[in-house]
Each structure stands twice: as C-alpha cells, then as structure tokens.
What does this fold into?
Amino acid sequence: MIDHLDHLVLTTAHEKQCIHFYTRILGMKLESFIGGTPPVERKA
It folds into this structure.
C-alpha cells in the first residue's frame, strides 16, 4: 500500500481542463514556477 507521495509528473494536452479538475474538483492549490534549461513555466 502507498504510504505517501512526494513527487508526481503528469503531462496533458488539455492544460485548462486539467487545472480545473485538480483545483476545482479535488481542491488542490495551483502553483507556478520557472525552471529547467531552457527556462520553462511549470505548474504544480
């Protein structure tokens, strides 16, 4: 059984719908940051 989850990466072709699901339906908080090379905006 999974005890906890530290990090998970999901890729989607439908960013708006994905953000809606996780923030409105599941109640998670959206966070944005810039990282990587080249710098890319990422959302968590």
The chain has one domain: 1-44. The two ends are 24 Å apart (CA to CA).
